[in-house]
Write a structure and sequence with these properties.
With about 220 residues, the protein is an alpha+beta fold. Helix content is about 10%, strand content about 30%. It has one domain (about 10-210): Roll (3-methyladenine DNA Glycosylase, Chain A). Strands 1, 2, 3, 4, 5, 6, 7, 8, 9 and 10 form a 10-stranded antiparallel sheet that branches. The structure holds a DNA duplex (13 and 13 nucleotides).
Length: about 220
DNA sequence: CAAACGATCGGCT
DNA sequence: GCCGATCGTTTGC
């Protein structure tokens, strides 16, 4: 059988609306996050993610299924952006998953720059230096990559699926073997008690565009 | 109405 | 490695 799958292929409702957010988080590694605001396209390969899951996850903003104005979008059907302000400064981008009524999300924590890198430098306020390799600080860390892609809290709730969306995720056919994925506890959730021990942070083991050291271990060694 | 608190980053030591 | 910035959201009085 010839492979007739045309790439790139935008991820569809069926991908996002499954109930296993941990599995979806892992599958998002290697996919390509794209923004196209005012016809300026920027894109990067997802290299680090974290899963959050209401109602039982104390680290999740919708813990206990509490609905607030901010978290309401997490309860909507999968395939939307949940973007919130962190520490008064950083705009953190999450992918809403699961069917309507289940508040699950995947925080995107790192991307490897692919397209529009000049714009990324501009948005980040980093001076372009063509000598040497791209600095990890360009798009490693959730606040950094959101800034590089022009993501902002005002886009929270936007669809990642509709044809006219300015934010979407593509499958470009990259296959990530399980042993290329590392796992560890989520960052910055010490307040979450036992839930802080859940190893729901995943990253591409060999990527430089990861927010913390590549310690911890590989999945399925 | 008041106040505490971040799913972080960058600058400085 | 440590520390301060900065402000919307949430909760408590």
């Amino acid at each position: 059988m010839p492979n007739l799958t045309p790439y790139p292929q935008r991820l569809s409702a069926g991908f996002y609306r499954r109930e296993d957010v941990v599995q979806i988080a892992k599958e998002l590694l290697g996919k390509v996050l794209v923004t196209a605001f005012d016809r300026i396209q920027t894109a990067g390969r997802i290299s680090e993610v974290e899963a959050y899951r209401a109602p039982d996850d104390r680290a999740c903003h919708a813990y206990g299924n509490r609905r607030t104005k901010r978290t309401e979008v997490m309860f909507q059907e999968g395939g939307r952006a949940y973007i919130y302000l962190c520490y008064g400064i950083h705009h953190l981008f999450n992918v809403v998953t699961a069917p309507e009524g289940m508040a699950h999300a995947v925080l995107i924590r790192g991307i490897e720059p692919l397209e529009g890198t000049d714009v990324m430098y501009q948005r980040r306020g980093i001076k372009l230096d063509t000598r040497g390799s791209m600095p990890a600080k360009l798009t490693a860390g959730p606040g950094a990559l959101a800034q590089a892609l022009g993501l902002h809290t005002q886009q929270t709730g936007h669809s990642l699926i509709h044809a006219d969306s300015e934010i979407w995720i593509e499958d470009r056919g990259m296959v990530i073997p399980e042993n290329a994925i590392a796992a560890g506890p989520r960052i910055g959730v010490a307040y979450a008690g036992e839930c802080a021990n859940r190893e729901w942070r995943f990253w591409l083991r060999d990527s430089r565009f990861v927010s913390r050291g590549n310690s911890s271990y590989d999945l399925k060694s």
